[in-house]
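Journal club side-thread
Mid-discussion, someone asked how the predicted structure for our own chain would compare to the paper's figures. Pasting it here so we can look after the session.
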Amino acid sequence: MPPETSQTLARGLRVLRLLADEPRGVTMTELARRVDVNRTVAYRLVATLVEFGLARRDIEGRVYVGVGVIELARAIEPLLRDQARPVLRKLAEDVGATAHLTVAEGDEALAIAVIEPSWTDYHVAYRVGTRHPLDRGAAGRAIVLGREDAAAPYSLTRDELQPGASGLAAPVRGIPGLECSVGVVALGELDVDAVGVRVVRAASELAKRLA
């Protein structure tokens, strides 16, 4: 480690990243092993994160990421929206469907940026602040794809969140600590082959902007 960096802070950030990647939590023994510290150091790191709301422990001693991380995530939402708007605008205009950026917040998917196409006669009204479970809707399912590092490039759904509506979304990959997806939602059927390529391309473009 370079001399100008803090070993303790680096270890704490490694713990935080580990917890963010393990929604089911980890034991203290596993945490110490994976961060490569002894249990005493692991307890101190976790205690500090708990104090600031960035970690929590259940009655069985398993450690989870804390709700304080959500507050930190909200602080970067304006940056995400600014970077996403031109990408979503191009996607919405190219596809002729409502485009959105959705982030994971706990076990829910939260839409934080939405752009509607300017030239269509009708489109789905999908609002900023819309929430739904991660296991329902294309946007949430795409986030789960990103967690699993699955081979599928995007998720496709129909009639899950709104009767007659189709959704297609792709995970934004390669940004540590950020779980989000870019997608579109439209009334009726989507041209899956054409739209899928554009959505995956938009997700990749946003990842480059955020890197």
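Post-session note: The mean pLDDT is 91.
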